[in-house]
Amino acid sequence: MAIFLILMGILGRLSGNGFGQKWGVSWLPEALMCVPYGVALGSALGYALWPDKPYLGILLAFAGFAVSYAGMQSATWHFLRWETHTDPNTERTATIKPLVDFIAARFGYSLGQEGYAWIAAMVKGFIIGLPVGGFITAIGWAVGYEIGSHAHGRVKFDPHAVSEFMSSALGAIGILVFLWLMV
User: Fold this and answer.
1) What is the number of structural domains in the chain?
2) Angle at which helices 2-15 and 173-182 pack, to 10 degrees?
3) Of all residues in the chain, what percent carry a pLDDT higher than 70?
């Protein structure tokens, strides 16, 4: 389990900060990171519902991958600074921003506040983890970015690497819990 979580953290880091673009394959680490979400859905739920029709499990796996990948494609710029977003760039777009704005407004938060960042990270994590329930991944994603926010000024490398690694690794706990519950 630990090796799986570490590998997911590494894929999360490779997915973040345009790291994959250096090799011209920015989509590849994100896609690889979403495969376990789809496979978990297809194998566990597909077998539970249709044990005699494995092709339906394969279709579920592709659907789960697609949902997770859509979540990975949603931007993170609106919560990257976490605690110090004093000059939010309101010109940039993010697929999930209208949903985040709606939820954040219910709690009295707006772009640039830490509460907004928590909600944005949880929404992104929820969508990524939706094939396996979403809730544990949502919490793991936000906690990972909280941990990473404390790396600013404390590490000699890009502190977002800590956020990306931790959010992906902690979010992947949702896959393990889902499989444990389904088996």
Assistant:
1) 1
2) 140
3) 90
